[in-house]
Amino acid sequence: MIVCHCEVVSDRDVVESIEDGARTVAQVCGATGAGRNCGGCVFSLKRLLCQHGRSVSAASFTEVAGAAG
Fold it and tell me: What is the pTM of this model?
């Protein structure tokens, strides 16, 4: 399933970045390119991080929101 339509990033790409060590939304965005344009996928990225047992800090969300805006 495509999570980020702007950069054509799939949920598999996101899970792979988590398995490779991404622990925050900002790290997932850096690894995959997702969330850099419109930011509409950030909540999906956060959900995937939570589903895969990773902690998502409020600071990481703020970093991405600031970069997208």
Answer: 0.74
